Amino acid sequence: MPTKQGSTSSSPTPSTEPTAKPTMNATPTPTPTSAPSSTEPATDPSEQPGLPPSIQVEGSQLKLLFINIGFDPTLSQISSTAMVTDRVTQNGTCTLTVSQGDNVVAVDAPGVADAQVTYCPGLSVVIPGGATGSWDVKMSFSDADVSGSVVSSISVG
Fold first, then answer.
1. Over the chain (157 residues), what is each successive 10-residue block's mean pLDDT?
2. What is the DSSP secondary structure assignment for residue 146, as one 8-state letter?
3. pLDDT of residue 51
4. How far is the C-alpha of 80 from the C-alpha of 77, rounded, in Å?
5. Which residues are 94's β-sheet partners?
6. Which region ranges are annotated with the description Disordered (predicted)?
7. Is the CB of residue 110 less than 8 Å from the CB of residue 143?
8. pLDDT of residue 58
9. Measured in Å, how far apart are the chain's first and last C-alpha atoms?
């Protein structure tokens, strides 16, 4: 209602009752079910989603994990980055080896130490033009004392 000039309006009296009332929404709780047991080995939770499973090479003294594996069809190039999770050193060598049957291509690069891991960053190899199918991807790291490797695969074409 409009107020007249010169008149005063009173402020509302505070109420002890809440102005908004809570609502109860029922959220269903999932019920655990028993899943069939599997003889497959458990996957490593530290592996990156979206990558094919990585397998440590038997006899490896170090643990390596792929961070990425990719294929650039324009350059006919497979590239990968990995990390050595249990060694920090600037004195090691990373080797990316990509193979399919008799086709084997490899490249070396120095490892790059970080605060808690050693990276094998952005190694790339060119595969034969028009190549298709599954290629084995192996990243190795070695220094004067220890070595390790991890393998995976990538489908190209």
1. 49 48 40 38 44 71 95 96 94 97 97 96 95 96 94 95
2. -
3. 59
4. 10
5. 109, 141
6. 1-56
7. no
8. 73
9. 76
Set out the domains of the chain in order of their start, with CATH numbers: 55-152 (2.60.40)
By the 10 Å C-beta count (0-12 exposed, 13-18 middle, 19+ buried), 55 is classed as middle
Residue 56's pLDDT is 76
- pLDDT value at residue 60: 76
Question: For the chain, what's the residue count?
Answer: 157
Q: Which residues pair with 105 in a beta bridge?
A: 98
Note whether 112 and 90 are within 8 A (CB).
yes
DSSP H or E segment with residue 139: strand 133-142
d(CA 19, CA 125): 67
Look-up: residue for tokens 């990390």?
83
Beta strands 77-84; 55-56: pairing state: unpaired
Order of strands across the sheet with 64-72?
Answer: 64-72, 77-84, 118-126, 112-113
Retrieve residue 154's tokens.
Answer: 């990538």
- For the record, the structure tokens of 138 come out as 């192996």
User: What local confidence, expressed as pLDDT, does residue 52 receive?
Assistant: 63
